[in-house]
Protein backbone atom coordinates (compact mmCIF):
# COMPACT_ATOMS: atom_id res chain seq x y z
CA UNK A 1 0.00 0.00 0.00
CA UNK A 2 2.81 2.36 0.90
CA UNK A 3 4.47 1.54 -2.38
CA UNK A 4 1.21 2.35 -4.15
CA UNK A 5 0.90 5.74 -2.49
CA UNK A 6 4.59 6.40 -3.01
CA UNK A 7 4.21 5.71 -6.74
CA UNK A 8 1.00 7.78 -6.89
CA UNK A 9 2.74 10.71 -5.19
CA UNK A 10 5.65 10.48 -7.60
CA UNK A 11 3.26 10.50 -10.57
CA UNK A 12 1.58 13.62 -9.19
CA UNK A 13 4.95 15.33 -8.79
CA UNK A 14 5.91 14.29 -12.35
CA UNK A 15 2.60 15.56 -13.72
CA UNK A 16 3.07 18.86 -11.91
CA UNK A 17 6.55 19.20 -13.38
CA UNK A 18 5.13 18.63 -16.88
CA UNK A 19 2.33 21.10 -16.24
CA UNK A 20 4.78 23.70 -14.95
CA UNK A 21 7.04 23.16 -17.96
CA UNK A 22 4.11 23.52 -20.35
CA UNK A 23 2.94 26.67 -18.57
CA UNK A 24 6.46 28.10 -18.63
CA UNK A 25 6.79 27.39 -22.34
CA UNK A 26 3.37 28.91 -22.99
CA UNK A 27 4.33 32.00 -21.02
CA UNK A 28 7.51 32.33 -23.04
CA UNK A 29 5.54 32.00 -26.25
CA UNK A 30 3.15 34.70 -25.02
CA UNK A 31 6.08 36.99 -24.33
CA UNK A 32 7.38 36.33 -27.84
CA UNK A 33 3.95 36.98 -29.35
CA UNK A 34 3.80 40.39 -27.70
CA UNK A 35 6.87 41.55 -29.57
CA UNK A 36 6.68 42.92 -33.11
CA UNK A 37 8.60 42.69 -36.35
CA UNK A 38 8.38 45.38 -39.01
CA UNK A 39 7.85 44.26 -42.58
CA UNK A 40 9.21 46.21 -45.58
CA UNK A 41 7.05 49.24 -46.32
CA UNK A 42 4.66 48.78 -49.24
CA UNK A 43 4.17 51.65 -51.68
CA UNK A 44 1.35 52.07 -54.17
CA UNK A 45 0.80 55.38 -55.91
CA UNK A 46 -2.67 56.88 -56.19
CA UNK A 47 -4.65 59.81 -57.55
CA UNK A 48 -6.17 60.48 -54.11
CA UNK A 49 -4.56 63.28 -52.12
CA UNK A 50 -3.55 62.07 -48.66
CA UNK A 51 -0.80 64.45 -47.49
CA UNK A 52 1.75 61.68 -47.04
CA UNK A 53 -0.35 59.72 -44.54
CA UNK A 54 1.16 56.36 -43.53
CA UNK A 55 -1.18 53.45 -42.86
CA UNK A 56 -0.09 51.00 -40.13
CA UNK A 57 -1.46 47.47 -40.15
CA UNK A 58 -0.97 44.64 -37.68
CA UNK A 59 -0.59 41.17 -39.18
CA UNK A 60 -0.93 38.20 -36.83
CA UNK A 61 -0.53 34.66 -38.16
CA UNK A 62 -2.36 31.83 -36.38
CA UNK A 63 -0.11 28.84 -35.74
CA UNK A 64 -2.97 26.33 -35.76
CA UNK A 65 -5.04 27.52 -38.72
CA UNK A 66 -2.02 28.98 -40.57
CA UNK A 67 -4.27 31.88 -41.54
CA UNK A 68 -3.26 35.54 -41.24
CA UNK A 69 -5.36 38.08 -39.34
CA UNK A 70 -5.07 41.72 -40.46
CA UNK A 71 -6.03 44.80 -38.43
CA UNK A 72 -5.80 48.42 -39.58
CA UNK A 73 -4.37 50.28 -36.59
CA UNK A 74 -4.85 53.86 -37.75
CA UNK A 75 -7.63 54.27 -40.32
CA UNK A 76 -7.69 57.70 -41.92
CA UNK A 77 -11.13 59.17 -41.13
CA UNK A 78 -11.06 61.25 -44.32
CA UNK A 79 -9.85 58.54 -46.74
CA UNK A 80 -12.11 55.47 -46.46
CA UNK A 81 -11.19 54.37 -49.98
CA UNK A 82 -7.50 54.17 -49.09
CA UNK A 83 -8.34 52.50 -45.76
CA UNK A 84 -10.06 49.74 -47.71
CA UNK A 85 -7.22 49.53 -50.23
CA UNK A 86 -4.61 49.24 -47.43
CA UNK A 87 -6.55 46.32 -45.92
CA UNK A 88 -6.84 44.70 -49.34
CA UNK A 89 -3.08 44.90 -49.89
CA UNK A 90 -2.28 43.50 -46.43
CA UNK A 91 -4.75 40.61 -46.77
CA UNK A 92 -2.89 39.36 -49.82
CA UNK A 93 0.08 38.52 -47.58
CA UNK A 94 0.06 34.84 -46.62
CA UNK A 95 2.11 32.90 -44.11
CA UNK A 96 4.70 31.80 -46.68
CA UNK A 97 5.44 35.43 -47.56
CA UNK A 98 6.33 36.34 -43.98
CA UNK A 99 9.99 36.26 -42.91
CA UNK A 100 11.11 32.93 -41.53
CA UNK A 101 12.46 32.85 -38.00
CA UNK A 102 15.43 30.73 -38.99
CA UNK A 103 16.68 33.50 -41.27
CA UNK A 104 16.51 36.01 -38.42
CA UNK A 105 18.63 33.77 -36.20
CA UNK A 106 21.39 32.99 -38.70
CA UNK A 107 24.92 33.60 -37.40
CA UNK A 108 23.57 34.16 -33.89
CA UNK A 109 24.02 32.10 -30.75
CA UNK A 110 20.61 30.93 -29.54
CA UNK A 111 19.36 30.19 -26.07
CA UNK A 112 17.01 27.25 -25.52
CA UNK A 113 13.85 29.32 -25.94
CA UNK A 114 15.03 30.83 -29.23
CA UNK A 115 15.96 27.40 -30.56
CA UNK A 116 12.42 26.18 -29.85
CA UNK A 117 10.95 29.22 -31.61
CA UNK A 118 13.31 28.77 -34.56
CA UNK A 119 12.12 25.19 -35.03
CA UNK A 120 8.63 26.48 -35.84
CA UNK A 121 10.04 28.08 -39.04
CA UNK A 122 7.65 31.03 -38.84
CA UNK A 123 7.47 33.75 -36.24
CA UNK A 124 4.00 33.73 -34.71
CA UNK A 125 4.13 37.13 -33.09
CA UNK A 126 2.85 40.41 -34.49
CA UNK A 127 4.08 41.83 -37.76
CA UNK A 128 3.66 45.54 -38.50
CA UNK A 129 3.19 46.63 -42.10
CA UNK A 130 3.37 50.27 -43.18
CA UNK A 131 1.70 51.32 -46.44
CA UNK A 132 2.16 54.60 -48.28
CA UNK A 133 0.09 55.99 -51.15
CA UNK A 134 2.18 58.72 -52.84
CA UNK A 135 0.24 60.93 -55.22
CA UNK A 136 2.69 60.80 -58.13
CA UNK A 137 3.99 57.91 -60.23
CA UNK A 138 7.30 56.68 -58.79
CA UNK A 139 10.08 54.40 -59.94
CA UNK A 140 10.65 51.28 -57.84
CA UNK A 141 13.78 50.53 -59.92
CA UNK A 142 15.20 53.66 -61.51
CA UNK A 143 16.81 53.84 -64.95
CA UNK A 144 20.57 54.26 -65.10
CA UNK A 145 20.71 57.46 -67.13
CA UNK A 146 24.50 57.81 -66.82
CA UNK A 147 24.84 54.40 -68.49
CA UNK A 148 22.47 55.50 -71.24
CA UNK A 149 24.58 58.59 -71.85
CA UNK A 150 27.80 56.63 -72.29
CA UNK A 151 26.22 53.93 -74.47
CA UNK A 152 24.35 56.27 -76.80
CA UNK A 153 27.01 58.97 -77.24
CA UNK A 154 28.49 57.18 -80.32
CA UNK A 155 25.20 57.79 -82.13
CA UNK A 156 25.68 61.55 -81.90
CA UNK A 157 28.03 61.60 -84.90
CA UNK A 158 26.12 59.07 -86.99
CA UNK A 159 23.64 59.70 -89.76
CA UNK A 160 20.73 57.38 -90.30
CA UNK A 161 21.14 55.54 -93.59
CA UNK A 162 17.57 54.24 -93.56
CA UNK A 163 15.41 57.09 -94.86
CA UNK A 164 12.28 55.40 -93.57
CA UNK A 165 13.36 56.08 -89.99
CA UNK A 166 13.06 59.49 -88.39
CA UNK A 167 16.54 60.25 -87.18
CA UNK A 168 16.71 62.05 -83.79
CA UNK A 169 20.49 62.41 -84.21
CA UNK A 170 20.20 65.38 -86.62
CA UNK A 171 20.08 67.77 -83.67
CA UNK A 172 22.70 68.93 -81.17
CA UNK A 173 21.49 66.45 -78.58
CA UNK A 174 19.64 63.14 -78.86
CA UNK A 175 16.10 63.76 -77.62
CA UNK A 176 13.80 60.79 -77.30
CA UNK A 177 10.47 60.36 -75.54
CA UNK A 178 10.00 56.79 -74.31
CA UNK A 179 6.36 55.95 -73.69
CA UNK A 180 5.85 53.10 -71.22
CA UNK A 181 2.74 50.93 -70.87
CA UNK A 182 2.84 49.62 -67.28
CA UNK A 183 0.83 46.71 -65.86
CA UNK A 184 -0.85 46.30 -62.46
CA UNK A 185 2.40 45.14 -60.84
CA UNK A 186 4.49 48.07 -62.10
CA UNK A 187 6.22 46.08 -64.86
CA UNK A 188 6.74 47.63 -68.30
CA UNK A 189 4.80 45.72 -70.96
CA UNK A 190 5.43 47.90 -74.00
CA UNK A 191 7.73 50.75 -75.04
CA UNK A 192 7.20 53.14 -77.94
CA UNK A 193 9.42 56.06 -78.96
CA UNK A 194 8.85 59.52 -80.36
CA UNK A 195 10.51 60.18 -82.70
CA UNK A 196 11.20 56.63 -83.88
CA UNK A 197 14.70 55.62 -82.84
CA UNK A 198 17.58 54.47 -85.03
CA UNK A 199 17.27 50.73 -85.71
CA UNK A 200 20.78 50.18 -84.33
CA UNK A 201 19.94 52.06 -81.15
CA UNK A 202 17.00 49.84 -80.15
CA UNK A 203 18.99 46.72 -79.05
CA UNK A 204 21.16 48.96 -76.86
CA UNK A 205 18.45 51.16 -75.38
CA UNK A 206 15.60 48.70 -74.90
CA UNK A 207 17.27 46.15 -72.55
CA UNK A 208 18.21 48.98 -70.19
CA UNK A 209 14.74 50.48 -70.18
CA UNK A 210 13.09 47.12 -69.59
CA UNK A 211 14.89 46.83 -66.26
CA UNK A 212 12.83 49.76 -64.98
CA UNK A 213 10.08 49.00 -62.49
CA UNK A 214 7.35 51.31 -61.22
CA UNK A 215 5.38 51.08 -58.02
CA UNK A 216 1.85 49.76 -58.64
CA UNK A 217 -0.87 52.39 -58.92
CA UNK A 218 -4.50 52.70 -57.99
CA UNK A 219 -7.09 55.21 -59.15
CA UNK A 220 -9.81 55.86 -56.59
CA UNK A 221 -8.64 52.74 -54.74
CA UNK A 222 -8.84 50.41 -57.75
CA UNK A 223 -5.55 48.95 -59.11
CA UNK A 224 -4.89 50.26 -62.61
CA UNK A 225 -2.42 49.79 -65.40
CA UNK A 226 -1.12 53.11 -66.68
CA UNK A 227 0.97 54.86 -69.32
CA UNK A 228 3.79 57.30 -68.63
CA UNK A 229 6.30 59.19 -70.74
CA UNK A 230 10.02 59.38 -69.91
CA UNK A 231 12.13 61.98 -71.76
CA UNK A 232 15.66 60.83 -72.57
CA UNK A 233 18.25 63.45 -73.46
CA UNK A 234 21.75 62.41 -74.56
CA UNK A 235 24.12 65.36 -74.62
CA UNK A 236 26.23 65.46 -77.75
CA UNK A 237 29.43 67.49 -77.69
Description:
The protein is an alpha/beta fold. It has helices spanning 2-33, 80-91, 101-104, 112-119, 145-152, 202-209, and strands spanning 36-38, 42-43, 45-46, 54-61, 68-72, 126-132, 139-141, 174-182, 188-194, 213-214, 217-219, 222-224, 226-234. The strands form 4 sheets. Strands 1, 2, 4, 5 and 6 form a 5-stranded mixed β-sheet that branches. The chain has a 3-stranded mixed β-sheet with strand order 3-11-12, with no helix packed on it. Strands 9-8-13 form a 3-stranded antiparallel β-sheet, covered by helices on one side. Strand 4 and strand 5 (68-72) form a beta hairpin. It is elongated. The chain starts with a helix and ends with a strand. The model is unreliable at 1-34, 102-107 and 159-166 (pLDDT under 50).
Query: Topology as H/E string?
Result: HEEEEEHHHEEHEEHEEEE
Main structural class: alpha/beta
- Helical content stands at 25-40%
Which geometry do the CA atoms define? elongated
Distance between the termini: 107 Å
Uncertain regions spanning at least 5 consecutive residues: 1-34, 102-107, 159-166
Oligomeric state: single chain
Mean pLDDT: 77
Rg over C-alpha atoms, rounded to the nearest angstrom? 29 Å
Total DSSP E strands: 13
Give me the number of helical elements. Answer: 6
β-strand amount: 25-35%
Biggest sheet features:
5 strands, mixed
Amino acid sequence: MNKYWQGFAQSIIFANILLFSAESFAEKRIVMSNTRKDLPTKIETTNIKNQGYIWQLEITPNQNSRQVHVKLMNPNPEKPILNARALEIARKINLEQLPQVANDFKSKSLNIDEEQIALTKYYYGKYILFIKFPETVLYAVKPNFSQLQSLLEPFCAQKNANKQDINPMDQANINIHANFSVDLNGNIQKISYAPAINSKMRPILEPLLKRIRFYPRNENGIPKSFAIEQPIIIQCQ
